[in-house]
Design a protein that fits this description.
The radius of gyration is 18 Å and the shape is globular. The chain contains 10 helices and no strands. The chain is an all-alpha fold. Helix content is 83%, strand content 0%.
């Protein structure tokens, strides 16, 4: 694989990474509730799931999963249910309007694993991530020339660029944390985030 091909791949994936999607919404949801630490835990969970899915796709396991309709549909509907669950959680928080102080370390520490799990499951149960790997990677790989190592490099680049974008979101949230900590603003952001997550779940459910 040449550097020209690789940087073309990086540019394409970088553009895809900044398109709003469920992962960004889950990071934002956890950053609003748990501050920078909450967002970092969710980002870590998403990265782990991304690496797993990327490895499966690069080694050919993903193709077997997507060709098995019962397995693929099960994962798809689990993803729909989980995104809707997270969305309703955010809407419930907006409705109640009871918020602890943003970045409270005492509460953030006790919820670290839950936030990591939310990120991990939201990515792992989204079959569009695996389909993206399977449709994107072959465009930059050539049979008989590129190796499994090249495929893994591309897959892990996707995960790394996703983390980079999510860290950028966290930086932006941190910069406006005083404004975000206001109760009316938090309620509005939680309501918007919840509606968007449910919207993603509904869109996934309607896809054939």
């Amino acid at each position: 694989m040449t550097w020209g091909v690789y940087w073309s791949f990086v540019l394409l994936v970088g553009l895809l990474a900044i398109v709003p999607g469920p992962d960004s919404m889950v990071v934002l949801k956890n950053a609003l509730a748990g501050g920078a630490r909450g967002g970092l835990h969710a980002t870590g969970g998403i990265a782990c799931a991304n690496v797993l899915q990327g490895t499966a796709a690069a080694l050919g396991l993903g193709a077997l999963i997507t060709r098995s309709q019962p397995v693929f549909q099960t994962v798809r509907w689990l993803g729909v249910a989980y995104l809707c669950y997270l969305g309703f959680q955010a809407l419930r928080g907006a409705w109640k309007g009871k918020y602890d102080r943003l970045d409270d370390p005492r509460r953030a520490g006790t919820k670290a694993f839950r936030r990591w799990r939310e990120g991990f499951l939201s990515n792992l149960t989204n079959p569009k991530v695996l389909v993206m790997y399977l449709s994107l990677l072959p465009q930059f790989l050539h049979p008989g020339v590129t190796t499994a190592g090249d495929a893994l490099l591309l897959a892990y680049t996707v995960a790394a660029l996703g983390v980079l974008w999510q860290l950028t979101l966290l930086f932006l949230v941190h910069r406006v944390r005083n404004w975000i900590s206001r109760r009316p603003v938090r309620r509005g952001l939680d309501g918007t985030t919840g509606a968007v997550l449910i919207g993603f779940g509904a869109a996934m459910a309607l896809e054939s």
